[in-house]
Amino acid sequence: MLYELTELALKLRAVPEALPALESYTTDSAAGGTLLGCWETEHGVIVGRLLLLREFADAGALAAERQRILTSSDPFGIGEHLESFRVCSYAPFPFLPPVRTGQFGGVYEFRTYRLKVGGLGPTMAGWEAALPERTKLYPLTTAMYALDGAPRITHIWPFPSLDERLAIRRESYERGIWPPENGPENIAHATSTIAIPVPFSPLR
Among 56, 66, 70, 151, which is 20 to 30 Å from 170 by CA? Predict the structure, then answer.
């Protein structure tokens, strides 16, 4: 199982018009993958920015879809609305189950850590040990490592609200549940994005 995380930068005020076409594209059988979630960003770079998470059965299916996107004159069915896009391939941490869709929270946080050289193995080991207690506070959508570009991981967390996010994170720190061992020590650079599910997102 592999994941594809796409960042779509749309023209100003184009999101409402683009969403129906994007839904059709990502749910069509020709796409070859399964739509897991689509979000509009709320913090950071926010103007017309969407995040798209899809699941693929294997590398062949992902590669076929990637080629279809890159060679298309109308990528994602919204070419007329797009300023740019970035597509990244990921594999889930091996000890995690597949992403489960459903209603988990109105607010999602996407955190991406560019890792120091050799940092992926220790990072995953620390996460494997720490996640059982951390996810008792609130579930994790997924944690995954990039298969292209710089060594990095991206993890996605749902929260009922921004206030609940702060409370859950504070409790995990105060109880010593989080961050995981070997986590911060292996981060070279970190970013965080808050995003809200769009109406057709399977992850809500």
Answer: 151
Q: Which tokens hold the place of 44?
A: 């950071």
**How high is the pLDDT of residue 168?**
97
The predicted model scores a pTM of: 0.95
The token duo for 52 is: 């798209």
- CA 164 to CA 106: how far, in whole Å? 11
Pick from 31, 33, 46, 29: which is nearest to 4 by CA? 33
3-class SS at 130? helix
Angle at 39 between CA 119 and CA 103, to 5 degrees: 95
73: which 2 tokens? 């004159």
27-78 confidence digits (pLDDT tens): 998 888 999 999 999 876 666 899 999 999 999 999 999 999 999 999 999 9
Please choose, from the candidates 37, 64, 21, 70, the residue with its C-alpha nearest in 3D space to the C-alpha of residue 200.
37
